[in-house]
Amino acid sequence: MEFLEATVTLADAGPTDAASAAETRQHLVVIGNGMAGCRAVEELLARDGTRFRVTIFGAEPHVNYNRIMLSPVLAGEKTFQDIVINDHDWYARHGIALVAGDPVVAIDRAARTVTTKSGRVTGYDRLLIATGSDPFIIPVPGHDLPGVISFRDMADVDAMLAAAGEGGDAVVIGGGLLGLEAAHGLSLRGMKVTVLHLMPTLMERQLDEAAGWLLKSALEARGQTILTGADTAAILGDGKVEGVQLKDGRVIPAKLVVMAVGIRPSVTLAREAGLAVGRGIQVDDHMVTSDASVLAVGECVEHDGQCYGLVAPLWDMCRSLADGLVARDNPYRGSVTSTKLKVAGLDVFSAGDFSGGEGCEDIVLRDAARGIYKRVVLQDDRVIGAVLFGDTSDGGWYFDLLKKGEDVAPIRDVLIYGQAFASGGGLADPKAAVAALSDGAEICGCNGVSKGQVVATINDGARSLDAVRSTCKASASCGSCTGIVEQLLALTLGEDGVQAAPKTMCKCTSYGHDEVRRAIVEQRMKAIPEVMQTLHWSTPDGCSSCRPALNYYLLCALPGDYVDDQQSRFVNERLHANIQKDGTYSVVPRMWGGVTTPTELRAIADVVEKYNAPMVKVTGGQRLDIFGIRKEDLPAVWADLNAAGMVSGHAYAKALRTVKTCVGSEWCRFGTQDSTGLGIRLERGFWGSWMPHKFKMAVSGCPRNCAEATIKDFGVVCVDSGYELHVGGNGGIHVRATDLLVKVATEEEAMHVAAAFVQLYREEARYLERTAPWIERVGLAYVKARVVEDEAGRDALAARFWHSQSFSQDDPWAERVAGADAGLHQPLLTAAE
Predict the structure, then answer these.
(1) 241-257 pLDDT, tens digit each
(2) Does pTM surpass 0.85?
(3) What is the maximum span of the chain, computed from C-alpha positions, in angstroms?
(4) Rounded distance between C-alpha atoms, residue 219 and residue 183, angstroms
(5) What does the alpha-carbon distance between residue 289 and residue 282 come to, in Å, rounded to a whole number?
(6) 609-614 own/partner pairs: CB under 8 Å, 24+ apart
């Protein structure tokens, strides 16, 4: 999913119009847009979606994202979009006002208002504090030098990525989970990393000495330097970080220092408001603070003397909080915690008390060749602790035994071999262990999902892993429980049931993309609500996954008849510009075939100066990208560019982006054909066509391929005897060279084949499927049979494409300049009155 807007309307302290004056619901204000705050709101909505109107304040300029997954973002395994939990459609769908990037700085309990950094005041009936925790910074000399950062949010990740882009040495202070993940990510990004850890054992709170040694050895084998027993004395540098000095005199060079030595509950706001605070904000069993109108949840709270830094207790707290708000009795009684992690790709699990000692018995299994270590600690024939390294598949079972306090004497001799063996299944049936888990056994620690919840989700119609993930969120985060979820699918549905179940579009339907498209065409459906009604959608309005897909499928099936549904598009497509991380937009005017004129260049320069655009960037597609345009200025920018004859470049759209060209035979001594001229013809012919995904073209004037035509969705390589037409290339994360589709003799043939190919892709690919995976799925032979070998079929495809284009080539910028959808361009953040 594309990155959505980072700021929406602010709920004011008092009513501002007749509609709000008539609002009778209580106002719940949430301080904290993180995992705990939003999960609490989710739990409340699941119980009663009409009792409260909700405003959420977030310090970061983002929607709610999974902080646990910052490490894969740093490592390059995921993008920010991949870790978003609740996108803007979720807030809008539930009528939640989000104020992002404007943190609350004061609470007035007498007036029942909160005040933000910008000075806005908002009233509340009930207040929920979910401020999380603050990173602890060691107060050594030099700790405030530029280049010293923590690892808690996306801003920290961005800072680490910027430093890694320049290379050099990095020091991570702290050998806990966050420190090791930071070191792993920076190492993958090319930095030389040294980890400094005060204690003799890495992750000493989760691992015993043996497992800590295995982890240290594995990380060192991957190129990191791990120094345990290392006590930091000072951070060195003149105006910026240059190194870290240890108390034993050693100096470790560094241009970046990441502090990851621990966290503390964030209680300053609560303390200044006069709430009862110990180590954290003190709460009762329903998360109510010393003020009955104020609740608190998450890492910032203290319950019965305990503060928790893991996600599983947070989910328990949120359930009790929501039940309390709707007058249900479900008190929070504290949490027994386990930790199942993947540290730098290495599986680690721990639970309970593994310190051992008098009256305890250790059962240990070591497999040096496979790097596996298992230790279970017993007391009075009951499991009180466990540590697993390298193979954590039985972690859930050991944790279940620990929580229940079951007598394990009958299986003591085989306990260490795991649940399947201990239950009599031996090694013959690997699913026996999962089948024997109790319904209350935790499957997904990241999202607090039990076995019973997963099975209920499957019984309610989730027929695939994706459907389970989108419904109850099991295995939707770190993915370490994916294997167990797949086994639960097989156990619940039977092997044949899982294999036969289609991959659904989303959680709203049991149909796959192909089935939905086929039904739209065969039954001649003409509107999104009609599709949802006919195909028995399980949600009233769909979601951010299915609505854009349905909108596209209807557009493709009914050119000229179907009216594009703007609300089913992502923000970039709605506003015809690309949103940036600071909330401004970038604008990319179209330059046909990469060719421009003095008039166009002057118009771009005038726009940059007139609207104070901070940067103009030449893109990889031979266009100019103007950054830093405010939302309310977009129509005026487009008007100025339109006046110079420039139209929307669709750089924001699931459509033709650019046609990249070289100068070809007109100027180049190696050119064999007029590649620039053909590129312009292609771009003028194909622009504006909505497609399943972004679509890129290129024309190279000779086999030297300067325009990189062989990594584009459709590429033309000019040769002496004509034109080689290539398809299915991709120059992104997974580079794929094109397949040769056919060779033709004339430009007209090239245009004709291109139209047929694009239309086949438009009609048969699934939404958000690029040409590369589409061709790999259906096979090049199939595409050739439809586009090359079947002449009548080719002509029909091309005819349908050009018919569709007769309704598609309207410049959206010009339409907005003329006043269409003017309301979309108002400022998003309204001031409180």
Answers:
(1) 999 999 999 999 999 99
(2) no
(3) 89
(4) 10
(5) 6
(6) 610/640, 611/636, 611/637
